[in-house]
Amino acid sequence: MDNFVITISREYGSGGHDIGKRLAELLDVPFYDKEIVDMTAQKYSVDAKRLSEMEEQSKLPFSLPQAFSSFSESDDQLFIRQSQTIFELAQSSCVIVGRCADFVLRNHPNRFSFFLYSSMKERIEHIKRKPGIYPASDPAQQALRMDKRRAAYYKYYTGQEWGQPTNYHLCIDTGILGPKTAELLKTFIQLSGS
């Protein structure tokens, strides 16, 4: 298959980062998650910390065409610049986690978009296994809070519902296969490209 891009949206604690990274390794393509923040900050001389904070703020819905025509709001400008970084990365095959990449790249001819979720019990277990990555606070409350922020961010910048199956090619419960979900996603991509 020619140049392809895989976008992964995920519930907090569902293992999306690890699965995306493993999938990139299986496909021998670059993997991008938080690296996009650093790349955007460096390219556009913006504060990486501010860009990360912008992604975690709750937003009210707005009209996307208006945002692309106006740089009046700094958060919108940061989103547009980050989207430009995503467009550039998608010129070559890669795996991108988060950052509304499924929407940003919705017109890419060889895009595969996945949404990963799992039960709260599985998510809590995953969070507990990675104490250096996730905050030490109540994992269930943290998961709910982050999912709410991700949903608001997605709604604000896309006008769509985060996690809605019609926005993705495949939604999968990572609690069943865990890290092996990457192998399933690879098979899906291979079958789709044949």
Helix percent reads 40-55%
Mean pLDDT, to the nearest integer, reads 87
State the major sheet: 5 strands, parallel
Percent of residues in beta strands? Answer: 5-15%
Number of strands: 5
- Tally of separate helices: 10
Write out the strand line-up for the largest beta sheet, numbering strands in chain order.
2-3-1-4-5
Basic shape: globular
The H-and-E topology, N to C, reads as EHEHHHHEHEHHEHH
Can you give a write-up of this model?
The chain has 194 residues and is of the alpha/beta class. The protein is 53% helix and 12% strand. The protein contains ten helices and five strands, in the order E-H-E-H-H-H-H-E-H-E-H-H-E-H-H. It has helices at 16-27, 35-44, 48-55, 64-69, 74-89, 101-104, 120-129, 139-158, 174-177, 181-193, and strands at residues 5-10, 31-32, 94-97, 111-117, 170-173. The chain has a five-stranded parallel sheet. Helix 1 (16-27) crosses helix 10. It is globular. The relative contact order is 0.22. The model is unreliable at 60-73 (pLDDT under 50).
